[in-house]
Amino acid sequence: MKNILITGGAGFIGSHVVRRFVNKYPHYEIYNLDKLTYAGNLENLSDIDGKPNYHFIKGDIEDQNFIMELFQKYQFDGVIHLAAESHVDRSITNPMQFIHTNVLGTAHLLNAARAIWNGNWEGKKYYQISTDEVYGALGDTGSFKETTPYNPHSPYSAAKASADHFVRAYHDTYGMPTVISNCSNNYGPNQFPEKLIPLFINNIKNNKPLPVYGQGINVRDWLYVEDHAAAIDLIFHKAKPGETYNIGGNNEWRNIDLIKKLIEIMDRKLGRPEGESLKLITYVTDRAGHDLRYAIDPTKIKNELGWEPTVKFDEGFEKTVDWYLANEEWFNHVTSGEYVEYYKKMYENR
Ligand code: NAD
Ligand code: TYD
Question: Is residue 133 annotated as part of the catalytic site, yes or no?
């Protein structure tokens, strides 16, 4: 394989995937296509800027003609599709944007790949990065398997689910060599501070209220972002066409317990008395349609591809906090401008 298109590479997970591929595979040409929405930030990749096998292209997956021309020009052998609108709360206030980006954007990529590859599937792969949220919500027990039926509840997860269905349809109908993976919640450096962990790190640091939705009893399974990037690397190279893999951290936390652990770490690192920041916890109106619990059964990827998480949560969480505290400038850049408006709209009257 030679020319690899990675979409959404300036975002949180995409930047870790791009960095891994550029450094590990110098014989690949890596094309990072990103629109640079509020969530895309080239600072995330400043360390690989200038590498001879790395190319950034600013562009929109919603632009059908542009995408077709791009595929004609670079004749990609592989596509790893991460570009998406990714935040559930934004999908509740603006569902149409999620349909445009996540559904139509995916369809444009599939159509361009189908046109350019034109039935010559040898050495080609289209890889869709999806989420465990498409499976819906679990009760207190059980976990999502690859065979669990899709049952999305938010406009975000419904749009991701819809895109995944198109990917499977292009495999089943045209024989396109597609793969899909569904991952649990990622944490680590470079995550935009609208998501729970970086938002709360920023608020604790600035002594701002910590808006806990509902009673804080929702459960998420957290995986260190570099472990996700390693799984993506493996699946891209080893998965057979038509396959699906679930990726998870075996690491379930109730939100309120995770928040208390974060407070403990932050107070220690900021030199505050133990428990000082607990007073910032503020219970607010629950998220509409808030999924109670996600959990992944990672047996298939472990047995078939030998993947397991390598970063222990205690270690990964400390490392994550250290990164955000050390990168104040990054925080300041991404929390200026649009972020201020977003924050007001999302939290002012909650
Ligand atoms: P993110 O919001 O941090 O990054 C998304 C990137 O896509 C940004 O760089 C943005 O500029 C780009 N983008 C958005 N619209 C675009 C468009 N129209 N054209 C081109 N680029 C566009 O998201 P993330 O958290 O890194 O998630 C990446 C992918 O992984 C998404 O598909 C998401 O559904 C999936 N995923 C995320 C998680 C998680 O915990 N964050 C878990 C499982 C799966
Ligand atoms: P989030 O990081 O948005 O990821 P997702 O909704 O994709 O799982 O949220 C993680 C959990 O934290 C989720 O149960 C919602 C909750 N949450 C809050 O309680 N307060 C907040 O301000 C945010 C952003 C999330």
Answer: yes
Residue of 147, 28, 9 lying closest to 84 (CA atoms): 9
C-alpha 101/C-alpha 99 separation (Å) is: 6
Q: pLDDT band at 1, cuts 50/70/90? A: low
| Cα first-last separation, the chain | 50
Whether residue 267 contacts residue 274, with contact meaning beta carbons closer than 8 Å, is answered with yes
Cβ distance 292 to 137 under 8 Å?
yes
The model scores a pTM over 0.90: yes
Instruction: List, for residues 139-168, the tens digit of each pLDDT value.
Output: 999 999 999 999 999 999 999 999 999 999
pLDDT at 336: 86
- In residues, how long is the chain? 350
Calculate how far, in angstroms, residue 290's C-alpha sits from the geometric centre of ligand 2: 9
Task: Give me ligand 2 centre to Cα 54, in Å.
Answer: 33
Q: Does residue 91 have its Cβ closer than 6 Å to ligand 2?
A: no
**Mean pLDDT over the full length of the chain:** 97
Q: Write the DSSP symbol of residue 226.
A: H
Is 154:289 a contact under the CB 8 Å cutoff?
A: yes
- The answer, yes or no, to whether any atom of ligand 2 lies below 6 A from the CB of 199, is yes
Task: Please give the share of the chain, as a percent, with pLDDT higher than 90.
Answer: 96
**Residue 318 to residue 115: CA distance in whole angstroms:** 46
59 phi and psi, to 5 degrees?
Answer: -170, 170
| 222: β partners | 185
Q: Is 132 marked active-site?
A: yes
31 and 240 Cβ atoms separated by less than 8 Å: no
DSSP-based three-state secondary structure for 294? coil
Atom of ligand 2 nearest to the CA of 86: 7
| 5 Cβ closer than 6 Å to some ligand 2 atom | no
